[in-house]
Specification:
337 residues; alpha+beta; Gyrase A, domain 2; RNA Polymerase Alpha Subunit, Chain A, domain 2; DNA polymerase, domain 1; 3 domains; four-stranded antiparallel β-sheet; 10 helices; 14 strands; 28% strand
């Protein structure tokens, strides 16, 4: 028999299985039924989008004016050369966010990622093929390598690329794969609890566990704004308006409106004590008060218009929060007196 819960079960088990240098399985459990996917799906998206990586953003090749050109003595055309280049993953060695590197190759050679290592950058995909040139060829090119997150199409930064350079779509994310599956686990005879198994693989620019850690930190920072919203101190807002003439007028008792006995008694029975309460009501809400007839409705709305706060008046959100809080405070004080 399933037990009745009064609070959420907090997962307390985590296991990291290293598959290779760039791939891990992260297992977390137990989650209550339905909660595993609530956690897993946004973390998967953040794994792809929040970790910083490095990518080629522009290339300059001697004798080449556009990506549809060809290079004498090179097997690949420029378009294929750029495509191969995108698959070579770099790391900037120091703390720079942008470097420019130049290369020169002559004679017959199969150029791989390992041939692009120098004092400024390290290639983490050394076996990745770039191009093949023949005995008579000379290939001179320069790259701009930048640090960033996510994917940025070349159209978004083409205008900032130096003259003679070709802008290249920049795929910064170092995460190659971020998948998850959800399994059932048994907890205290309840088989509906769940386990998340993440399969995370990076390109070598960053360790997969570090990518997972950064995704969690990003997740926490993104939802932290809701805590700030809940923690808004309404009393501070009230203090700002405490000396406002409008606030004082709105917090007056409805008796100052000199309403007829019928109208006043109707409001009294509905526990409406202050002018602000009437102003914050819609016409429909006011008409819906028990025993409030047409004449009483017209009398009340007329008085409110004369005060400058007609029914359905649109207050600023913070001001209205202060009004609601103050009215509750005043009513509590009266009931305790």
């Amino acid at each position: 028999m399933k037990k009745i819960s009064t609070s959420l079960y907090i997962p307390n088990e985590i296991e990291i299985e290293k598959i290779n240098e760039n791939r891990v399985h992260v297992k977390v459990w137990p989650f209550q039924a339905g909660f595993a996917i609530t956690v897993a799906h946004p973390l998967r998206r953040l794994l792809y989008g929040c970790s910083a990586g490095y990518a080629v953003s522009a290339i300059k090749i001697d004798g080449v004016k556009h990506e549809f050109d060809s290079i004498r003595g090179m097997l690949e055309d420029v378009a294929l050369f750029i495509l191969n280049l995108k698959n070579i993953r770099f790391k900037i060695i120091d703390d720079s966010n942008r470097v420019e590197v130049s290369y020169n190759f002559k004679g017959h050679k199969e150029i791989k990622g390992s041939d692009l290592n120098n004092d400024l950058v390290e290639v983490v995909t050394p076996e990745q093929h770039l191009a093949t040139i023949n005995e008579d060829a000379e290939l001179n090119f320069s790259l701009i390598i930048e640090k960033g997150i996510g994917y940025v199409p070349s159209e978004e930064f083409r205008e900032s690329v130096p003259e003679e350079y070709i802008a290249v779509d920049a795929f910064f994310t170092p995460v190659r794969k971020a998948l998850y599956k959800i399994e059932n686990v048994l907890v205290e005879d309840d088989p509906t609890f769940e386990k998340i198994v993440f399969d995370i693989e990076t390109d070598g620019q960053i360790a997969p566990v570090q990518a997972f850690k950064e995704a969690i930190e990003a997740f926490n920072s993104q939802i932290a704004v809701f805590s700030k919203a809940i923690d808004i101190d309404v009393t501070t807002i009230e203090d700002d308006f405490e000396n406002s003439a409008d606030l004082k007028k709105l917090l007056q008792d409805v008796s100052v409106m000199n309403l007829s006995a019928r109208s006043f008694n109707c409001l009294d029975r509905a526990n409406i004590k202050y002018i602000a309460e009437l102003s914050m009501m819609s016409e429909l809400e006011l008409k819906g008060l028990k025993n409030l007839g047409k004449k009483s409705f017209e009398e009340i709305t007329g008085k409110l218009e004369a005060l400058g706060f007609p029914v359905g008046y649109k207050f600023e959100d913070d001001f209205q929060k202060a009004l609601v809080s103050k009215i509750q405070e005043l009513k509590t004080e009266k009931s305790e007196a």
